[in-house]
Amino acid sequence: MYWWSNRFYAMLARRYGQRGARLLEIGSGMGHLVAQLEDTFVTDGVDLNHWAVNKSKTVVVSRRYKLPARRNSRLQTASLML
To answer: How far apart are CA 32 and CA 2, in angstroms?
Structure first.
């Protein structure tokens, strides 16, 4: 069901979103949905799981990804423009 929901959400974003707009996915995991939308939007992803963020580097061509800092609640950059 995971692949189906990603395709469905990507279709909704393309239908109702404006081409070239910024898209932020919170809790984007391994980045499959963001990868599907890279050609239409300027994509950003945020996730708490360091392992998933590292795995997303093989899925997504270029994206900015944020992880929470361990010592405080502000976000720090994990990787920029993969």
So the answer is: 10
Model-level pTM? 0.69
Tokens standing for residue 67: 């992880």
pLDDT of residue 78: 47
Encode burial over 56-79: b for 16+ CB neighbours within 10 A, e otherwise: beebbeebbbbbeeeeeeeeeebe
pLDDT in tens, 17-46: 999 999 988 888 888 998 899 999 998 888
Task: Output the CA–CA distances (angstroms, integers) from residue 58 to 8, 12, 20, in the order listed.
Answer: 22, 25, 23
What is the number of other CB atoms lying within 10 angstroms of the CB of residue 24?
A: 14
Beta carbons within 8 Å of 36's beta carbon, 6+ residues apart: 6, 7, 10
How many CB atoms lie under 10 A from the CB of residue 10?
19
Pick from 39, 10, 2, 44: nearest CA to 25: 44
